[in-house]
Specification:
The complex is a heterodimer of chains A (225) and B (71).
Chain A (H helix, E strand, L loop, with lengths): L4 H20 L1 H65 L3 H7 L6 H15 L2 E7 L20 E14 H12 L5 E10 L17 E14 L3
Helix pairs in contact in A: 4-5
Chain B lengths: L5 H33 L5 H6 L9 H9 L4
Classes of the chains: A alpha+beta (225), B mainly alpha (71).
């Protein structure tokens, strides 16, 4: 059915006419103007001013961030160039660092070093025990995902040596002076009572046999993943 | 106390609604702009890349290690 505006106007005319005297009042006119002003400002704030302000401040922030980023990148590039020069200077000494802190546990080599030190110090190793330790470095499935070793890991080593007092002292000093990074956790000294020894009147400390129980920690670098 | 007519009462209510709408929208816009200003546009990956690097290598410690005995 088509909309017949004349008929509809006639029908609702009295409502329209009743608004007219109301709108003619000065108070109503003032109120209407103020209310619509507030509503229009709110509407434009939301749909026009807000996106514009956001764009302006996003761009300003981006400029500040990028300027700061550029400066930091420049600093980092300079630092990298300096680091490369410094690395080239110390490159011949890098195998020494690797010996001090290997990238694998290198337990066999460590045991060999302790044995050589014992031999040098004229003491006898009567027992050596190394706990569970990975003998080789972890190899990931993909080469490009490998992470450089960066975590300091340790494994305990228990060692029992016997020898004269001075030799034991030399052995401990030698262990502290080893290139491989070692930490002595505990030392237990006890005299050795050998059967069939001849007692003498002049028992000097140098001739006394001492048993030394050492608990060591040996360090190496491992991947933190 | 002055008694308001029903039409004046309506006008006052509408005015209050429009004023509150205006203040709500203004505060909303203000806080959105503030959030935009405070939020960085640099990604965490880039932040990780620009971590400062010290190019100094302690050569003294290398010499100390070199003096230590190795078998």
């Amino acid at each position: 059915m088509a909309f017949d505006y004349k008929k509809e106007y006639e029908r609702y005319k009295r409502y329209y006419q009743s608004i007219e005297p109301e709108l003619a009042k000065p108070a109503t006119r003032a109120y209407t103007a103020i209310i619509f002003s507030f509503l229009v400002v709110s509407l434009f704030s939301w749909y026009a001013i807000r996106p514009t302000m956001q764009t302006i401040f996003t761009l300003k922030r981006e400029i500040t961030d990028k300027t700061d980023l550029d400066k930091k990148m420049e600093d980092k590039i300079s630092a990298l160039i300096e680091a490369q020069a410094a690395y080239q200077d110390v490159e011949p000494n890098l195998p020494i660092v690797n010996q001090a802190l290997p990238v694998t546990s290198d337990a066999v080599r460590a045991a060999r070093q302790l044995q050589a030190l014992a031999s040098d110090s004229h003491v006898t190793i009567t027992g050596i025990s190394i706990s569970n330790v990975p003998l080789a470095a972890d190899t990931g499935p993909r080469e490009e995902q490998k992470i450089a070793p960066n975590k300091l890991t340790d494994f305990p080593v228990s060692l029992t040596v016997t020898g004269a007092y001075l030799d034991i002292k030399n052995f401990i000093q030698g262990a502290l002076n080893l290139r491989r990074v070692i930490q002595i956790d505990s030392m237990v000294f006890s005299p050795v009572r050998a059967s069939g020894t001849i007692a003498t009147n002049s028992a000097t400390p140098t001739s006394t046999q001492i048993k030394l129980d050492l608990k060591l920690k040996l360090f190496y670098l491992s991947s933190s993943s | 106390m002055k008694i308001l007519s029903p039409s004046q009462d309506n006008d006052r209510d509408l005015l209050l609604i429009s004023v509150f709408t205006f203040f709500t929208v203004t505060l909303w816009v203000f806080f959105e702009v503030l959030k935009t200003v405070k939020t960085t546009t640099i990604t965490p990956q880039v932040t990780q890349i620009i971590v400062p690097l010290s190019p100094k290598i302690d050569s003294q410690i290398l010499q100390t290690i070199a003096t230590k005995k190795s078998y």
